[in-house]
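Chapter summary example.
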Amino acid sequence: MALYEHVFLARQDISAQQVEALIEQLKGIIEANGGSVGKTEYWGIKSLAYRIKKNRKAHFALLNIDAPHAAVAEMERQMRINEDILRFLTLRVEAHEEGPSAMMQKRDRDERRDRDGFDRGPRADRPRRDRREDEAATEEEI
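The structure predicted for these 142 residues follows.
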């Protein structure tokens, strides 16, 4: 069987319990068609980059699926019918990630570094030029 990662966005009007019920319904569809759902994560309500069907926010959820393509196709068909689901994306992967996904990992500001991996520190060590000195230099040149 193939491995899939499935993410969907649900309307912000529904409650978190309704999203959990929706996840259970999707699990039931997958299991009824010979597959299994490994990890499920509810990411909460997040702001959208642009409006989708007049919604500015949505509930985000992730499912790690191990199922045949027919099961995933049936799940996607059911999701197209459901009015509470705004968007979904299913990707085939080689292996599922162990542990929490990138969205669930808490990043601390102190752990972040520049792209090259070095902390540049404060800017106090750089010389500062005074604007009045620049203006005086330009008047002498004229």
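To summarize the output: Helices lie at 16-32, 69-81, 131-141.
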